[in-house]
Every structure is written in C-alpha cells, then in structure tokens.
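G., the chain you wanted modeled:
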Amino acid sequence: MSDPRLAQWARVMAEYSVEIRPGDKVFIHTAPAATPLVLELVREILQRGGYPQYLIDLPGVSEVFFHYASDEQLKIEPPLMKKVVEEFDVRIHIRAETNTKALSNVDPHKMSLYTAAQHPTMETFMRRQAAGELRWCVTQFPTEACAQDADMSLREYEEFVLGACLIDHPDPVASWKEVSAKQQKLVDWLRGKQRVQVKGPNCELTVGIDGRTFINADGKRNFPDGEIFTGPEETVTEGWVKFTYPAIYVGREVEGAELEFKGGRVVKAGAKKGEDFLIKMLDTDAGARTLGEFAIGTNAGIQKFTRNILFDEKIGGTIHMAVGAGYPDTGSKNVSAVHWDLICDTRDGTQITVDGVPFYRSGEFLVK
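Predicted structure as tokens:
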C-alpha cells in the first residue's frame, strides 16, 4: 500500500493513541508488508523525541518454530518480549499478515504450551499498562490475505481500514475525541452499578460488575477502536452464550462456539468446528475458563465481519467476551496466559439491562 494518508495514520497514532514523548523507548512489532506505515511511524517517533526499536516477523518463521520446537522449547518464556514488556515505555503492534492461515494446523497441545509460557509476561504487561507505565496500541496494515478473509479486494479493504480509523476525516484526532466524549457518557452512567443481564436468542447471561470499572475504548489502545468494556467479577457469571461469529485465536478458527457458565467459570464448552482447540485453550491454566472481559461494540462504521478481531469486536450492535486475562484497570483479578475475544450479534432483539434498568436493545443504547 502506497498512500499519502499513511503519514496521517502515523501522526494520529503517535500524537493521539500512544502520545509519544521525548525520551520514550518505543517498541514496534510488525511484519515486512507493513514497511510503508512503519517508515512514516518511525519518522513521527523520532521527530517527537522518541527512540524506536523493531521486531520484524519474517513470513514462515512461526510455522517452522511450531513444527520443530520441542515441549521444553515451547515452555520457555520469550526473553525478548519479556524485556520489552518490563522496560519499554511504548509498545506498538502493526499487524500485517500475508497468510492468516499459517498456523491453522498447529497441534493444539503445542499452542497451549506456548501460550502458557507467556503467562508471566502477560501479567507484567497487564500490571504496567494498568499503572500507566506502558502505553500500547495495535493496528492493522492492509494486506491481500486480510482482504481475502474479509471477502474484499485489496483496494476495498484499504478503504475499509482507513475509514474505520477515521483517517479520511478532516481532523482525525478531533473525531476520535468526539467518539471518546460520546462513550464517556455511557461509562459514567455505568459507574457504581452491580449486575448486567443479557437476554436474547443467543445469550442468557448474568455478569457481575460490582466494584468494576468500564473503560472507554476510544482509539488509544486499538486503532481503530469503538467499545466500552470491563472485567467482570470472577465468581458471578451465570448462564450461556452462543457466539454468532467465528472465533479466531492465534490463527485457528472455531465456528459455532458455545459456553455455559456457573459460578463464574466455563463448565461446558462446544463448537461446530474446532471444538478440540477451544477446549484445549480453556484448559491452558486456571484463569482461562473465567471471563476477563465483557464489552459492547460501538463503532457504527464497522458493520461487516472480516475475520479480524481488531475490527470485528468493534462492530456496532455486537457484544463480545474474552475468556482469560482481565485488565487490572477494570478491577479484574483474573490472571491467565489466554485472552480470547468471542463475538455475539445483538441486533436480533437482544436486550441488556443493568440493575434492572433497560440499557440497550437490538444494538442501540437506551440511556442518554
């Protein structure tokens, strides 16, 4: 992709999303396909006084790793990412997959061991980002592979991505600040509430939010963004949910995932496709069967499912839940190496009440 809007994209991320400051050590994790955006971002970071470092994932390396790595090698905590999470001020991940199915046939046992090994790094990341010591942002560079997953041409997908990021707006930073202000009203209304109940064709669920904080996801950590989320009480979640979209995690796809909760934990799980993988991930560690996140997607500009969680979890008119690690700044105490977002459409009459008060119906908020 070669587009003059790339400079605007980099500026918005550096200025608004992660707020680069003089002296910041900035880690960029990406792939070769994203080079045009990386060059613009490095320029922005340097001009703002930051110090950029990079990790470039070469195509095919992960496939070789999972094919040949022994169980002992899979259990090693990744030392480079450990250092980044412990010492850097800013972490930027620019996703740019050229083969989104590269890990589709990896043995779930190997994936589980590898994921579990990252548990300490995940804990450090969660703690430092909650304390404001580590600012971070994830974005998606358009590639042919992602366009194919979304059933779009590359040009169509590029326009979709830039549109979702509000890059075409005269002042994208001002536009994201407007999004932030609108969502903050919802977050403020939810403050101090205790119970969320979701009821619809694909979900009958009670989630505890007593003492928890809803976060206004407004383009700071994800770019694009558009959701409000919290970390549910760990022992309160009750009920069931059928996820209406495929659930994709570390390159593996699960269709028709269903979860049943009792006492805050998944007690029953199934899927039409990929059930073995789903259960293996839920058994990764003690926290993987507990919700670390409950969220409502708010981005009306994202309506199409693209098999990319960065966009799909923001679809206006959906909710999503993540099994595994919760963000400490929400009040979540759940710890896990897993954080897997699964999405359910609500534009089918689904209702959300909060402490008995109607809050949301069929994708529309009912409170002002």
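The radius of gyration is 20 Å.

Shout if anything looks off.
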